[in-house]
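Dear support,

I submitted the protein below through the web form. The confirmation email said the job was done, but the results page showed an empty box. After a refresh the structure appeared. I'm attaching both so you can tell me whether what I see now is the final result or a partial one.
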Amino acid sequence: MNKGNRKYLIAIIIGVLLTPTAVSEAFAERQYEAMGGEWLLIPLALLVVFLFKSIKEFIVITLDELAEEDEEL
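What the results page shows now:
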């Protein structure tokens, strides 16, 4: 398993561990069963990992292109 996939696995594990707490807290607040945003913790965790990975790749590519432009000058 490479490092990138490990980050997604960690995000899934964190989401799975936090979801029951979020669901019980939401029930305590509402006092009735409902499906709300507390069920989106796993997709949200994956989205955060994906966004950070994408931003990091964008910065690396941009810095490489800027370095190439400086070499040409």
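Response: this is the final, complete result; the empty box was a page-load delay. The radius of gyration is 19 Å.
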